[in-house]
Amino acid sequence: MDNKLKKFSSLLRSKKELMGCIFLTLIFQLIVSIITMKYDQEKNIVGNLFPTSPLLTGLGMFIIPIILLISIKYSKSFLTKQILFGLFSIILGLIMSQVIHFINDPKIVESAAYATLINFALMFAMGLIIVYFGHDLTWLGGILFIGLLILITVQFVGFFTEQSNQYYKNISYISVAIFSLYILYDTNRILLKYQNKSKPDCINGAMEYYLDILNLFTNYLNIDSN
Question: What is the 3-state secondary structure of the chain?
Fold first, then answer.
């Protein structure tokens, strides 16, 4: 037990700079999204820019984040990654603003936010415990990716067919399970695979947590709303 604790403590000390960078970046980008969301709710930026093209707006809100994600993934410059991440956070803030406007219930939004924070904290703590016991979850990545592809396919099919509210709630329950496990997987990978002073790893880690949090939040919104 003492040997495990020493190894775990040594690992955490060796990743101190990386974890600090990841969480500072994550918090900053979440704040950017929240500020964008609040500003859009007051000024209706999306509605004013594209008042007669909701379909075009929807396509743009879908395609642009994907392009930004790919650009962040393959960019080599830390500054470029940060700027692209900032743009991504702004776009996601605008998307979340539209979702929250559609739901139009502050209590549901608040409940989803608390559920997301509690979920993240618990799964992060579990991720630390798994690392403490020396388990490598690399094998889990492939399973989660396949599960995510199946989930996206089911959602895509549901988009073109008439489904009940319960159908989408069931999808959201499964999504919450998948992205909760992704927090475990990401924490494990960050601590065991990422380099402490690697700035690209800092952005990649923050982006992974950011996506986990946003997906949890949107699915909790769907579970609580009608």
Answer: CHHHHHHHHHHHHHCHHHHHHHHHHHHHHHHHHHHHHHHHHHHCHHHHHCCCCHHHHHHHHHHHHHHHHHHHHHCCCHHHHHHHHHHHHHHHHHHHHHHHHHHCCHHHHHHHHHHHHHHHHHHHHHHHHHHHCCCCCHHHHHHHHHHHHHHHHHHHHHHCCCCCHHHHHHHHHHHHHHHHHHHHHHHHHHHHHCCCCCHHHHHHHHHHHHHHHHHHHHHHHHHHCC
pTM: 0.91
What is the phi-psi region of residue 195: left when phi exceeds 0, alpha when psi lies from -120 to 50, beta otherwise? Answer: beta
Task: Give the sign of the dihedral formed by CA 101, CA 104, CA 107, CA 108.
Answer: negative
Instruction: For residue 63, give the nearest of 55, 51, 75 by alpha carbon.
Output: 55
pLDDT in tens, the chain (226 residues): 578 888 889 988 989 999 999 999 999 999 999 999 998 888 777 666 655 555 555 556 678 888 888 888 888 888 899 999 999 999 999 888 888 888 888 899 999 999 999 999 999 999 999 999 989 999 999 999 999 999 988 888 877 777 778 888 889 999 999 999 999 999 999 999 998 878 889 999 999 999 999 999 999 998 887 6
- Helix pair 199-224, 54-74: axis angle to 10 deg: 150
